[in-house]
Amino acid sequence: MCAHYLTTTHLIDHKDELHRYNIDIAALSETRLADECELCERGAGYTFFWSGRSTEVRRESGVGFAIKTSIVSKLVDPPKGISDRLMTLKLPLQNGKKHISIASCYAPTMTNPDDVIAKFYEELNSTLLDIPKTEKLLILGDFNAIVCSDHHIWKGVLGKFGIGQCNSNGLLLLQTCAENKLLISSTIFSLPMRKRTSWMHPCSRHWHLIDYVITRQSDRQDIRVTKSCCGAECGTDHSLIITKLNIHIQPKRRPQKSKPLKRLNTASLADDKTEKSLADAIENCLKSTILTESNVDKSWECFK
């Protein structure tokens, strides 16, 4: 399965890029669409789900998913919008015994009030607690956070290839990952710098990593690679982040073929001996059948 993170406000416009990179599930951030809804365009190959604020208030956030239409029917339930910054879905895996929960996140920027940031992480922690520990987990999104490269301090949470100096949002993200035994997979692969960063600061022109793919520490072996794709045309100042996974979604169950009815060999009745044998067998059965029921329907049941 291939999943990725994408910041967009024009959902359908990017379906060609989703096809080009063969994306199964895309997490969408900053959609700025109202309410909780879905959209399936004929021939697009993808169904879009989103969760946002109501039409009566200013819409500055919004999250969602773009899912291959062939996969939508396999969802346990339709994607659930927790808020305008958090949405989740659940898929059965190939063995049929386990599931994977995927969350699409859009964290507040550092310019937001502290109570807005605190509310987001409270919702995220509450959502993580509701997901059984036996389920696989994947968190995709724009966290507007810079985590450090101190993998010795944040053992198990960070890999050796983190970028930059930790800011306040980054500290909140690291604490959340440590409390829930999560791994920021974007920091565990040795890749060129252009494939490890996702956003360029408009003033300093420095590249940073603020978009993350997070999983359970126990499921590290499921992540084949997490990287930034600089060539994707997504209509945003963020690079597309792709994650390839070593898991497979449960295939659609094939309808079971009904057993063919046993056909009688009527051609054998052309033989006189066979015909006489069958006639004698039927006559003996009729003689041994005693119909004592006065009701015709009950007599017929006994006769059969």
From TrEMBL:
Which Pfam families does the protein's record reference? Exo_endo_phos (PF03372)
What Gene Ontology terms describe what this protein does at the molecular function level?
A: catalytic activity
Which intervals of the chain form a coiled coil?
none
Q: Where is the Endonuclease/exonuclease/phosphatase domain?
A: 16-152
* PANTHER family to which the protein is assigned, alphabetical: BUCENTAUR RELATED, ENDONUCLEASE_EXONUCLEASE_PHOSPHATASE DOMAIN-CONTAINING PROTEIN
Identify this protein by name: Endonuclease/exonuclease/phosphatase domain-containing protein
